[in-house]
Specification:
GO molecular function: kinase activity
Structural class: alpha+beta
Low-confidence stretches: 401-413
InterPro entries: HATPase_C_sf, HATPase_dom, His_kinase_dom, HisK_dim/P_dom, HisK_dim/P_sf, Sig_transdc_His_kin-like_C, TCS_sensor_his_kinase
Strand order of the largest sheet: 4-3-7-6-5
Number of helices: 9
Number of strands: 12
Domain Histidine kinase: 248-448
Protein name: histidine kinase
Enzyme class: transferase
Length: 448
């Protein structure tokens, strides 16, 4: 897939969008998980803070004091990561896990009855998640005594939980990315299928399998196909006009040329044969040009519906040539496939076969062979004579499509130029090579 194709660009844009979306999703999910874990941890600290509040008792005189806290292994191991600190007035107690370290909350305590979450340094420099619970305890006289409870846990455990979550999440995001990319690729293939249909139909237009693209396509590409069809309609109209103008011009020349031949005959009667011959030579050359242009004007350029049977055309042309004085002395050998059809106008094929077979007949010593067979998707027509062949220098010109040999060699150049034009109009190929003996001509046309 080339980087300049629409499919590649869409795939690249989709892949970038999917990766960005999944990356943002991973960040968002990790943040949500971190908040959830922290919320669960805060709820646990709140429960522990309420349990610590139960160690406040009053003596017989009604004075509140801090009783021994309940035994909990988490708070007995030094630097265990779980700590508490409670103060009642000036009396302060700390968990054994803090050892000789004291938590340093803000000087101003939370409002009585309120809780707040803090982030404080721990005994080993680590960050702690701290829940502060602030209460008021009244003594026997009714005087309020502030009770401040701090319960803490290390954030390291929370970070590890987040890291484990992200580690477990990444494989699933990778699988999801692969599935999304595959789905996006299928979406692109299905979405661009109409363009592939247009491309195939344009190819069919070029090969002559279709006359027009048509409008039986999705609505999004119908305007494009309609515009192309309109261009083709306009092209055909212009081609018809050009063909008619060429034919009219050629026909317009025929009458003056015929008049010149009459004048040449009068000059010959007046005893001026040299001048008459000169005029006739020019007129004959011009008539050949006119005949060639008339033939070219008749060549059909619409290959979509053109169809011809090489077997019928070859046999018909050979039958005519056998009746000529030269053709009656030639041994004609034909081997053609009756079921073979070529994508070319039947009149055009007849014109080309007539020129080639007549040329082979004039140069043959005594035999001409013609074959027509299918090779893959091509209709291959081969004509061979047993004559002297063609000089190598001239052969290279014959094999070059569109070269007009009639300008330097009288007799066979026009016919071969017409053959080249006809085969070219049918999107075929013609080749010439010496067969030792004779000349071998091959025409390759699209088969039906």
């Amino acid at each position: 897939m080339r980087p300049t194709t629409i499919r590649w660009r869409l795939m690249l844009a989709g892949a970038v969008a999917i990766l960005i979306a999944l990356g943002l999703s991973a960040v968002g999910l990790s943040l949500l998980f971190e908040r959830h874990v922290e919320r669960v941890a805060v709820n646990d600290l709140e429960a522990r803070a309420r349990a610590l509040a139960g160690i406040v008792e009053t003596d017989p005189a009604g004075r509140p004091f801090l009783h021994d806290p309940p035994s909990d292994p988490l708070y007995h191991q030094p630097y265990s990561g779980h700590y508490w600190q409670i103060s009642l007035g000036t009396d302060e107690r700390r968990s054994r896990s803090l050892w000789d370290f004291r938590l340093t909350p803000p000087a101003e305590a939370a409002a009585p009855g309120a809780t707040r979450v803090l982030s404080l340094p721990g005994p080993q420099g680590e960050r702690l998640l701290v829940l502060e619970q602030s209460l008021l305890v009244r003594d026997a006289t009714g005087a309020p005594l502030p009770l401040r409870i701090l319960v803490a846990t290390e954030r390291t455990a929370l970070q590890e939980a987040k890291r484990d979550f992200v580690t477990s999440l990444l494989p699933f995001l990778g699988i999801l990315a692969a599935l999304l990319l595959a789905a996006f690729w299928m979406q692109i293939r299905i979405g661009l299928q109409p363009l592939s249909q247009v491309s195939k139909r344009v190819t069919a237009l070029n090969s002559g399998q279709r006359a027009r693209i048509g409008t039986d396509l999705p609505d999004e590409v119908v305007p494009l196909s309609r515009q192309i069809d309109q261009l083709l309609d306009a092209r055909d109209v212009e081609l018809d006009r050009a063909r008619h103008r060429a034919a009219d011009l050629a026909h317009g020349f025929k009458t003056p040329l015929q008049a010149l031949l009459g004048d040449a005959e009068k000059l010959r009667d007046q005893g001026k044969p040299a001048l008459a011959d000169s005029i006739e030579t020019v007129v004959v050359a011009m008539r050949r040009l006119v005949d060639r242009e008339l033939t070219r004007a008749r060549i059909q350029s619409d290959r979509s519906s053109a169809e011809a049977s090489p077997d019928q055309v070859i046999n018909r042309v050979v039958k005519v040539l056998k009746r000529t004085p030269i053709g009656s002395d030639i041994s004609w050998q034909t081997q053609t496939d009756p079921g073979l059809l070529a994508r070319i106008d039947a009149d055009d094929l007849t014109e080309a076969m007539g020129a080639l077979l007549e040329n082979a007949m004039r140069h043959a010593q005594g035999a001409v062979s013609v074959t027509a067979e299918r090779q893959g998707g091509q209709a291959l027509i081969t004509i061979r004579d047993d004559g002297p062949g063609v000089p190598e220098a001239a052969l290279s010109k014959l094999a070059r499509r569109g070269v007009r040999l009639d300008e330097s060699s009288e007799g066979d150049g026009i016919g071969l130029a017409i053959v080249a034009d006809i085969v070219d109009a049918a999107d075929g190929e013609v080749s010439f090579q010496n067969a030792d003996p004779g000349l071998l001509v091959q025409i390759s046309l699209h088969a039906r």
